[in-house]
Amino acid sequence: MADLVKLLHESVETxxxxxxxxLEASVSGDILxxxxxxxxxxxxxxxxxxxxxxxxxxxxxxxAQNCAIYVDLSGNLTVKDTSAAQTGSIIHNSxxxxxxxxxxDLTKKPVFTFESGTIQAQEFGVCVFGGGIxxxxxxxxxxxxxxxxxxxxxxKYADYPYEINISGGNI
Length: 171
Description:
The structure is a single chain. This protein has one helix at 19-25; strands spanning 5-9, 12-16, 30-34, 38-40, 44-47, 50-54, 59-62, 67-72, 76-80, 89-92, 96-101, 111-114, 118-121, 126-129, 133-136, 140-143, 149-150, 163-166. The chain is 4% helix and 46% strand. Strand 1 (5-9) and strand 2 (12-16) form a beta hairpin. It has an eight-stranded mixed sheet with strand order 2-1-3-6-9-12-15-18. It has a five-stranded parallel sheet with strand order 4-7-10-13-16, with no helix packed on it. It has a five-stranded parallel sheet with strand order 5-8-11-14-17.
């Protein structure tokens, strides 16, 4: 099987056959770079570490339940596309792309930052609730049946304030 993801830890690069293998090996501060298009059946969970995902002109297409990427607890994920054409994308044709959620600990704030590339979802492009923070600095976010960036507004999360900061991009 071909390598799909490159993990940069400090100055050492290691390639992996799956994004889940690269995530297991990652530690805070690492950069995951796509080497090919990826199809996901299960969502990616980022919890208790800070990572950067470089789409590098490739796409993640997901069929996972609820969302493609779930940023939880003290997880911190930055998504960018360093390719010249910035054609990298995260796509979910039946649900949401990114959930930024903390359902269990008010002292922790999951953070999602979007720099460049495209997020395209059937439902939410980026959904934040339960104390999360979303920063949109660039890129394009498209949602077909719901908000490109928003919250679910459920009373369940009333005690978990969230933040949405938008300074650039196309929504």
